[in-house]
Amino acid sequence: xxxxGDRPGIFPMCPANPASHAGGMNTDTVNAEHAIDDADAAALxxxxxxxxxxxxxEGLARYFGVDPTIVRIAFVVLxxxxxxxxxxxxxxxxxxxxxxxxxxxxxxxxESLQSRSR
Length: 118
Known about the structure:
mainly alpha
């Protein structure tokens, strides 16, 4: 009789037949063009469409894949509870580049200050 208790210490979870495996894992199936498109879509930007004030909440919502209303409510709650919502929003405004731009407001300001000092 072949069962689970016929030999001590042996508990076959799967058959030991190597032919049952499909083969080695192939990790070269990613399309390079598709990966570049995903990187562009996942870039953190302040979009023009859907903004209420400066687009910080909309950009963060798109980046993290959540509803923009949740991000806006989080900013309001942080403002009311501890006052951190406004500084965080302003930080996002300075550091997150606008849609169609590669440079943030803070980056442009630093670059202009550096060009003046030369």
